[in-house]
Design a protein that fits this description.
By secondary structure, the chain is mostly helical. It is built from 2 helices and no strands. The longest helix is centred in the first third of the chain and has 15 residues.
Length: about 70
């Protein structure tokens, strides 16, 4: 496997990674910045339903939240 060519050498590594991910999404026909994000739960519902889990503990439940994390 070859190393991907940097999008712009003046960009930081993190910026290059973001540009490459955006390019892959566009190539796959996926909107990189969707207008809406389907949400199944609020952050409060996730905390109430799964707040008892310890770090690394997993369940088979699938949830979708949207927004910004301000404080954990």
């Amino acid at each position: 496997m070859t190393e991907p060519t940097p999008v712009n050498p003046s960009l930081s590594e993190q910026e290059q990674v973001r540009h490459e991910k955006r390019a892959r999404l566009l190539a796959d026909g996926v909107a990189p910045y969707p207008i809406t994000v389907p949400r199944t739960h609020s952050a409060a519902q996730v905390h109430a339903g799964w707040g008892h889990l310890v770090a690394g503990e997993e369940t088979t439940d699938v949830v979708s939240v949207s927004g910004r994390v301000v404080f954990v």
